[in-house]
């Protein structure tokens, strides 16, 4: 299954491309396989930095107000939960720390 993380590369005041690189490195260290992409404008300009998780037949998650300097470990923790969930539905996201408070929406598969 192809898991993806999409990171806005044009969010005002945030280095989305640089954060995407940091996410790739952190996921490799954690031995998690994701396709990490930076994307120009995810239309969530009021809550930069935007990050989405998606995979075939799984719920899609959109986060805003992600702080690259402090949220990388929480993002990796969420990535682990998402990868191991059969349908992408995370019932208890406390393990994702502050990131769970950045959730904008969860879209069913």
Condensed summary:
It comes from Roseovarius pelagicus. This is DUF1636 domain-containing protein. This protein has 109 residues and is of the alpha+beta class.
How would you describe what is shown here?
This is DUF1636 domain-containing protein. InterPro entries: DUF1636. This protein has 109 residues and is α+β, with helices and mostly antiparallel strands. The chain has a single domain (4-107), classed as 3-Layer(aba) Sandwich (Glutaredoxin). Helices cover 28% and strands 21% of the residues. It contains 2 helices and 5 strands, in the order E-H-E-E-E-H-E. The protein has helices spanning 16-29, 68-84; strands at residues 4-8, 35-39, 51-54, 60-63, 103-107. A 5-stranded mixed beta sheet has the order 2-1-3-4-5, with helices on one face. Helix 1 (16-29) packs across helix 2. The longest helix has 17 residues, at 68-84. The relative contact order is 0.22. The mean pLDDT is 95.
Task: List strands and helices in order, with pairings.
Blueprint (H helix, E strand, L loop, with lengths): L3 E5 L7 H14 L5 E5 L11 E4 L5 E4 L4 H17 L18 E5 L2
Parallel strand pairs: 1-2
Antiparallel strand pairs: 1-3, 3-4, 4-5
Helix pairs in contact: 1-2
Organism: Roseovarius pelagicus
Protein name: DUF1636 domain-containing protein
Pfam family, one: DUF1636
List keywords for this structure.
DUF1636; alpha+beta; five-stranded mixed beta sheet; 109 residues
**Beta fraction of the residues?**
15-25%
Helix count, DSSP H or I runs of 4 or more residues: 2
Classification by helices and strands: alpha+beta
Show unreliable segments: none
| Main sheet overview | 5 strands, mixed
How many domain regions? Answer: 1
Task: Give the name of the CATH architecture.
Answer: 3-Layer(aba) Sandwich
- Which strand order do you get reading across the main beta sheet? 2-1-3-4-5
| N-to-C CA distance | 14 Å
Radius of gyration: 12 Å
Name the overall outline.
Answer: globular
- The overall strand count is 5
Helix-strand sequence: EHEEEHE
CATH fold title: Glutaredoxin
Regarding quaternary structure, how should these chains be classified? single chain
Mean pLDDT: 95
């Amino acid at each position: 299954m192809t898991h993806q993380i999409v990171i806005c590369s044009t969010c005002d005041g945030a280095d989305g491309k640089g954060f995407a690189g940091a996410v790739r490195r952190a996921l490799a260290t954690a031995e998690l396989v994701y396709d990490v992409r930076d994307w120009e404008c995810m239309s969530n300009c009021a809550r930069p930095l935007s990050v989405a998780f998606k995979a075939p037949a799984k719920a899609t998650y959109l986060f805003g107000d992600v702080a690259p300097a402090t949220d990388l470990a929480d993002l990796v923790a969420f990535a682990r939960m998402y990868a191991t969930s059969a349908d992408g539905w995370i019932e208890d996201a406390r393990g994702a720390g502050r990131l769970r408070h950045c959730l904008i929406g969860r879209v069913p598969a």
